[in-house]
């Protein structure tokens, strides 16, 4: 089965378990690419059921609800599920690794997946926890949606240069700035365009902004005045952040953890990016929110 054939089944698989079963059977006879596509569609089916559960948990007004609106909502949810599947560090990566191991297929880099079951289970548990969070999470606000829409294009450009997923960068920028509500500002009130809370150390030769921030010392929050880098534009902020993560020895391991949002966030915390003891959990949630919003943006763009 070619990738073209598997791609043509994508929309069907989100709603048709029989078609999904056929693709699974074909994956056993074909390349790792087919296995990857199969895993993506398994995740798509899972995401659709998750969205369906969330819909059922939401109260309906009854005024405009009918069979036609239910069908439209179901079709939209199907597209959401397709677009949300295949994200870096998602369930599809774990499913593909498990299928490859069971069928004795090596990964594209030539390494066997044998002996990694415990790692896969650990990552699966984290993904399940994030999925549980998504099922009970408050729907993204208009402020979050506007922030993601405003900065995604710049993040995509920097992703091509650095390899850091755009959703990770936008999610972290959203978390650091309160989705744009708490931006770092100069004394004259002008924005410093510092979306990532990067401080100005001795190596920084540009403008700085002095603001009061919260630092955690032995788990206890303290207010301190600190100097932060100031940029001419938010694009410069994204680029400087990517340079810091990919070139600084301190964050050498972080740039190797782009396959999982939680692993990426945990690696940042371990490297000392922030003093908040719950930083990894908060950041991974912000990234998940960003990925949902970006998936929605893709669906809307394709429907126009």
Topology:
Blueprint: H1 3-8, H2 10-13, H3 17-27, H4 32-56, H5 67-84, H6 91-103, H7 117-136, H8 142-162, H9 166-177, E1 208-217, E2 220-229, H10 234-247, H11 261-270, H12 279-303
Antiparallel strand pairs: 1-2
Helix pairs in contact: 3-4, 4-5, 4-6, 5-12, 6-7, 8-9, 8-10, 8-12, 9-12, 11-12
Strand portion, in percent?
5-15%
Distance between the termini: 31 Å
Mean pLDDT: 76
Number of strands: 2
The SSE string, one letter per element, is HHHHHHHHHEEHHH
Helix-residue proportion? 55-70%
- Using only C-alpha atoms, the radius of gyration works out to 21 Å
Q: What's the arrangement of strands in the largest beta sheet?
A: 1-2
Choose one word for the global shape: globular
Tell me the structural class.
mainly alpha
Sequence stretches where pLDDT stays below 50 over 5 or more residues: 1-15, 111-118
Task: Tally the helices.
Answer: 12
Largest sheet: 2 strands, antiparallel
Describe, in short, the structure shown.
The protein contains 12 helices and 2 strands. The protein has helices at 3-8, 10-13, 17-27, 32-56, 67-84, 91-103, 117-136, 142-162, 166-177, 234-247, 261-270, 279-303, and strands spanning 208-217, 220-229. A two-stranded antiparallel ribbon has the order 1-2.
